[in-house]
Amino acid sequence: MIIGIIIAVVVILLVVAIGMYNSFIKLRNSCEEAFSTMDVYMKKRFDLIPNLVETVKGYAAHEKETLQNVIAARNNLQNASTTEEKLAGENALQGTLKSLFAVAEAYPDLKANTNFLDLQDQLKMIEEDIANSRKYYNAVVKQFNTKCEMFPSNIIASIFHFEKQPMFEVETAEERKNVEVKF
């Protein structure tokens, strides 16, 4: 009788542990899928940037430094290999794009150019998609991180080396500010 109870307890604990492990796998895969979704939208924006820069360059040849900063931020993001590097590169690129649009505001002919307007609309749509994918990514990461920290699932997390994932956050106060446009 005692052996039966011990076996039943062990089986129940094993079933609970397997359930927790499988839920970690599911959440980890959701985190990866959410990041990949965000990455797809960032790639679309990444591909759009050279066209936008070339259009602005035709009107604002003397704004060379701003244009170089946008290209440099884009290249740094392209070379990022870890999730943390990609998130940091994404923040840097977003800041330089704000500067690019501030430059564009100073050129009335550019603002009326249909190519520029089309590119700007495409970028606006992609930015909205990126913002939504960031929200989804952070929501999934929050679920995963919470499970990693809560008892008793934190035991399973430590045994199988499930570690907290980075949230997507704006890194500096500078990036939170609106771009100031001066004429």
In the CATH hierarchy, the third-tier topology is known as: de novo design (two linked rop proteins)
Structural class: mainly alpha
- Please state the overall shape, judged from the principal axes of the Cα atoms: rod-shaped
Q: Tell me, rounded to a whole number, the average pLDDT.
A: 82
**CATH class assignment:** Mainly Alpha
Q: What do we call the CATH homologous superfamily?
A: LemA-like domain
Task: Give an overview in words.
This protein has 183 residues and is mostly helical. It has one domain: LemA-like domain (de novo design (two linked rop proteins)), CATH 1.20.1440.20. It is built from seven helices and no strands. Helix 1 runs antiparallel to helix 2. The radius of gyration is 23 Å and the shape is rod-shaped.
Summarize the structure.
This protein is an all-alpha fold.
For the structure shown, list the relevant keywords.
single chain, 183 residues, mainly alpha, de novo design (two linked rop proteins), 7 helices, 81% helix, 0% strand, disordered C terminus
Blueprint of the fold:
Elements: H1 2-59, H2 64-79, H3 83-105, H4 108-112, H5 114-149, H6 153-159, H7 173-176
